[in-house]
Amino acid sequence: MLQNSEELLNETISEEKTLSIYKLIMDGGVGGQVIIAILIVLLAVALYIYFERFFAIKAASKTDSNFMNQIRDHVSHGKLDSAKVLCAQVNSPASHLIEKGISRIGKPLADINTAIENAGRLEIYKLEKNVPVLATIAGAAPMIGFLGTVIGMIIAIHEIANAGGQIDIKMLSDGLYTAMTTTVAGLIVGIISYIQYNHLVVRTNKVVYEMEAKSVEFLDLLNEPI
């Protein structure tokens, strides 16, 4: 008899220690479930944007250390078509700027510089495509989570008001589950999105600096005496 009681007690403790995330979400009521679903969608969008941009920026950051030396050789020998072909083969943001500059050779240096700057803005726009969405998710997700907190508190207060003086913690559980689960979920999505956004910004800036360095080197090449 004593052994059976101990086994029953152990099973009860085991059940109490096992906290199912799914059960928490389901116990949070319809309001909490809707907000959690929205946050899951936002997380999926954030992850998709991050990995898509990560691999795109990684591909754009690949540089050939001998690229500018080859451009210098082609331009100095008047082989502009060969230089353009080389830029097309490299196919990077920096090579696109150099190709734009090569296509303007023969015009005033100010016009070449302007053409490169305009092309540079377009390349930066391509690199930053959808990245601001991550910043939006990073800011919106915690606020959506806090909205769930407010909804949960309203549910809890409503239960207290209708309890008729007999407050039972169990009747408050739905509101409390909604408040806590949505807050945690919102913060998790916001933190992940914030880290992803800043990581992409850092990597994008490195590519931009590389573009600027190659552009300056190309303009210096055009300024060199023949």
Automatic annotation (TrEMBL):
Give the GO cellular component terms, alphabetically: plasma membrane
Q: What is its main location?
A: membrane
Outline the extent of the MotA/TolQ/ExbB proton channel domain: 91-212
Listed A to Z, the keywords are: Cell membrane, Membrane, Protein transport, Transmembrane, Transmembrane helix, Transport
Q: How does it sit in the membrane?
A: Multi-pass membrane protein
Q: Which Pfam families match?
A: MotA_ExbB
Cell membrane listed as a keyword: yes
GO biological process: what's one of them?
protein import
Task: Give compartment(s).
Answer: Cell membrane; Membrane
Q: Which residues cross the membrane?
A: 30-51, 131-157, 177-197
State the superkingdom.
Bacteria
* UniProt family annotation: Belongs to the exbB/tolQ family.
What's the protein name? MotA/TolQ/ExbB proton channel family protein
